[in-house]
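Allow me, if you will, to draw on your knowledge of protein folds for a short while. I am sending you one protein, given as its amino acid sequence and as whole-number tokens for its backbone shapes. Kindly check, if you would, that the fold set down in the tokens agrees with what the sequence suggests. The record follows directly beneath this note:
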Amino acid sequence: MTEVTTNEAKAPKEKRDGVGKAIREAIFAGKSNADALAYALEKFPEAGTKVTTISWYRNKLRQEGYDVPTARDLKAASKAAEASAVDPLEG
């Protein structure tokens, strides 16, 4: 069997913005998993992205050393913020 080689160099692939980049942007912006999912699907409605995809990216970023809060931490912070909010009618 002979190997055929060509002298043509392959053109480098263009790096495109994808759903993964949108998810990372949302996570770095401090969005919850549900909000990050909504953001990603707004930009890429045809994507089959699910909440589990957001969780995967969140965990991957933490493994890479980024200081990214867990979904549980975000939920707790949100509940704490709601609890500390003063009801204007109760004054």
Summary: DSSP finds four helices and no strands in the chain. Residues 10 and 35 are 39 Å apart (CA to CA). Residues 19-71 form one domain.
